[in-house]
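Ticket #4471: structure export looks truncated?
Reporter: QA, pipeline team
Priority: medium

Steps to reproduce: submit the single chain below to the structure queue and open the exported record.
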Amino acid sequence: MSGTLILVRHGQSEWNLKNLFTGWRDPGLSQKGHEEAKEAGRRIKAHGLKPDIAFTSALSRAQVTNDHILKELGLETLETIRDQALNERDYGDLSGLNKDDARKKWGEEQVHVWRRSYDVPPPGGESLKDTGARVWPYYMRTIQPHVLRGETVLVSAHGNSLRALVMVLDGLTGEEIVKTEIATGVPLVYRLNADSTVASKEILEG
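Actual output as written to the record:
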């Protein structure tokens, strides 16, 4: 067996709370989101996991989640690499809109297609497939080598950038991954074999 990959979706953001499309916009965490991030750190610690390096996106809600986790682990000075390759899916013209208002403007069915199809992007934005096209190469080139050296790697990112990773790690189809929910602040722990295949997966709930 090789190393360990810990994936954490950021805690609830202010815009999650307000039911807004967020994408590359940069709201902070809600009070609940701060607590979720701290709890993620406590769960990781309780399972005896100690990251050797951390990766996060260029957006503050993921960075603050990462900071909370590392503080709970007593690893505030751990090397953390920030890159927009791990950013949330870009929702384009939907960014900043209330999801109910978007349905009124474009219709329930069209908004559902943009949100829940694999390869249909909203106007000016990215599909999940597009998001994967930047996440996968970054993972292969920059993150995975650390895991294959036997390190424990923490990735604090977003619902859709993590969906793209989970799709590959779990061997899911485009249809399957869009139905997969990734909860805020709940760590997913993958242990990888030396050939990069998944040896085990554990969801650190409750």
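Status: closed, not a bug. The export was complete when the record was re-opened. Leaving a note from the reviewer for reference: The mean pLDDT is 96.
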